[in-house]
């Protein structure tokens, strides 16, 4: 189970990094590169979500899932990164609109 939890943390962290880099690129006007990083963030979130799903499926068939601080930490990373990625998408759009007005 620890391997699954660490996969959630690792892939969420990668997605967070891509999302933050995308925001930075959008501020610089590099919208295509920013959108490319959002695609990478989505891929990483997909991997993290698949790991999370494996835990949920295990519990659904009555496997005992030991809750730990590490699991809570992984869930926190995943959820906050999902929100960050959504906000990054919105910020890219806002920066594109601002750029088109200038």
Explain how this protein is built.
This protein is an all-alpha fold and 102 residues long. The chain has one domain: Methane Monooxygenase Hydroxylase, Chain G, domain 1. The chain is 87% helix and 0% strand. The chain contains three helices and no strands. The protein has helices at residues 2-27, 31-60, 69-101. Helix 1 runs antiparallel to helix 2 (31-60) and helix 2 packs antiparallel against helix 3. The mean pLDDT is 95. This is Lichenan-specific phosphotransferase enzyme IIA component.
Q: Based on CA inertia axes, which overall geometry fits? A: elongated
Backbone CA Rg: 16 Å
Structural class from helices and strands?
mainly alpha
Q: Percent of residues in beta strands?
A: under 5%
Q: Low-confidence parts, pLDDT < 50 over ≥5 residues?
A: none
Number of strands: 0
Number of domains: 1
């Amino acid at each position: 189970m620890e391997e699954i939890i660490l996969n959630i943390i690792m892939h969420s962290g990668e997605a967070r990094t891509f999302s933050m880099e995308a925001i930075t690129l959008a501020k610089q006007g590099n919208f295509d590169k920013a959108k490319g990083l959002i695609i990478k963030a989505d891929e990483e979130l997909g991997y993290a979500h698949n790991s999370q799903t494996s835990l949920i499926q295990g519990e659904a068939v009555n496997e005992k899932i030991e809750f730990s601080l590490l699991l809570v930490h992984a869930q926190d990373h995943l959820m906050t990164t999902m929100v960050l990625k959504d906000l990054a998408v919105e910020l890219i759009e806002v920066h594109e609109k601002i750029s088109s007005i200038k």
